[in-house]
Amino acid sequence: MSKQSSSPVLRFAPSPNGLLHLGHAFSALYTWQAASLLGGTALLRIEDIDAERSKPEFTAAILSDLHWLGLDWPEPVLHQSQHMDAYAEAGNRLRDHGLLYPCFCSRSEIAAAAEGTDPDGAPLYPGTCRHLDRGEQITRLERGDPVQFRLDTAKAMDRVGMLTFTVVGPLVTDRPQVRHARPERWGDVVLQRKGTPTSYHLSVVVDDAAQGITHVTRGRDMEAATDIHVLLQMLLGLPSPIYNFHRLILDDAGKKLAKSRGSESLRGLREQGWTPEDVRRAVGL
């Protein structure tokens, strides 16, 4: 499932559920710059596992914006929607080891029962369905109840023991440091859903291994998610890349740019007459 690279390999992996903004531009430019500093290669990956929100026109816009910024990449580009079988296989391996269980709780039920939040601020799943007996699981699955499959994080951690990962920063060429991962603060995360054999967490570790990614550059807002990724890498026997967490581009209110908040797109800036040099100056590269 994985392959080793003789030289550094990095990746920029946007989701085609909207137009890129300055935050994406910074992350892409930063990744290509890091690849150059390391004497390696930057890949483009399209993370389109969300079939409802991912649109071909957004994929086309991503390619256009990145080319406009002066970036290029090896072909073919990996589209996650074309690799569902690989994610299903990884999920089945976890299931065979008794590490996944079906959860039938609704969001409102989880919110009502949760005690505390995960690092993203979402209600922390209390493990309700972890205690369902096998008979009830089978009955509800056969009945077709809405279901998602969660990782039994405590059982998984008992299996792998203490987890660490390697971080470099602020520059990707800085001296490596070892950090301890804390997956328990995420609780039992969702890895698969009915009709979708993967989640972001599962697909990203499978793809990083398959593409031989040696260094992962991502925003500081994704730093905590590394806990789950390192755990999954250990469970699936996959290599763990070196991680580098870069700064975020913030708006005038001090909040990170986001598609969901209507942050101005690169397309909009281009239409206003911005040049690639203007973008680089705006993001400090």
UniProtKB/TrEMBL annotation:
Mention one GO biological process in which this protein takes part, according to its record.
Answer: glutamyl-tRNA aminoacylation
Q: Which domain of life is it from?
A: Bacteria
Keywords, A to Z, come to: Aminoacyl-tRNA synthetase, ATP-binding, Ligase, Metal-binding, Nucleotide-binding, Protein biosynthesis, Zinc
What GO molecular function terms would the record report? ATP binding; glutamate-tRNA ligase activity
Family matches, as InterPro entries: aa-tRNA-synth_I_CS, Glu/Gln-tRNA-synth, Glu/Gln-tRNA-synth_Ib_cat-dom, GluQ/Sye, Rossmann-like_a/b/a_fold
Q: EC?
A: 6.1.1.-
What the entry lists under Gene3D superfamilies is as follows: HUPs (3.40.50.620)
Please list the residue ranges annotated as the Glutamyl/glutaminyl-tRNA synthetase class Ib catalytic domain.
10-283
GO CC annotation: cytosol
| PROSITE patterns in the cross-refs | AA_TRNA_LIGASE_I (PS00178)
Q: Which Pfam families match?
A: tRNA-synt_1c
Protein family (similarity comment): Belongs to the class-I aminoacyl-tRNA synthetase family.
Q: Which NCBIfam families match?
A: PRK05710.1-4
What is this protein's name? tRNA glutamyl-Q(34) synthetase GluQRS
Q: Which organism is it from?
A: Devosia ginsengisoli
